Amino acid sequence: MDGLARRDLVEALTRARLLLDPASGGAFVIRPFRTGEPAMIAARQSLLYAESHGWGRELETLESEVTAAFLRDFNPAREQCWVADIDGVLAGAVFVTDEGDGVARLRLLHVEPFARRRGIGDALVARCVGFARDTGYHTLMLWTHTVLESARRIYAAQGFVCVETAMHDAFGVPLQGETWRLELAA
Predict the structure, then answer these.
(1) Where in this chain does the record put each N-acetyltransferase domain (predicted)?
(2) Which of these, 84, 80, 161, lies nearest to 119 by C-alpha position?
(3) What does the pLDDT look like over 88-125, one tens digit per residue?
(4) Which residues lie closer than 8 Å to 88 by C-beta, 6 or more apart?
(5) Distance between CA atoms of 122 and 17, rounded to whole angstroms?
(6) Which CATH topology does 26-183 take?
(7) Which of 74, 85, 103, 154 could form a disulfide with 99 if both were Cys (CB 3.0 to 4.6 A apart)?
(8) Which sequence spans correspond to the domains of the chain?
(9) How far apart are alpha carbons 151 and 147 in whole angstroms?
């Protein structure tokens, strides 16, 4: 068995253990993304939101476009993707992208169902806020939806405020989208 096959097997067995007993995992670690992970993150989010909210191909298209642009234009001094993992299994992720003119955008935050209630979402958002501040952005923006109550609580706790609400059907179902903003400049 080669190295990749061995890693795949260990990850699959660990994931099975975490799915069967979520409390069995160790502490989570947040690290920069590795090759192949942005596309996996987009695919995983598409599956999770299709299952939980009925969001379809339109969301998958948007997520794929976001990750493709991130990889194509990646500037590690201004952008990042972080992955939270538990025992080597991807447990969540988030991106920060440079929107220009001193504005950064938090994108594609998610936490796997087996890993929720461990503080991963809070830690990922805090990492984005710290990075945006340290990098010299004056504003950090994000777009979310009213049905994503846990994420909205995390954003509010980090100091973001909702600045715009609008209905749309961009994911194949009617939704109330929200734009949130965090001012970083002192």
Answers:
(1) 28-186
(2) 84
(3) 899 999 999 999 999 999 999 999 998 999 999 999 99
(4) 10, 11, 14
(5) 24
(6) Aminopeptidase (3.40.630)
(7) 103
(8) 26-183
(9) 9
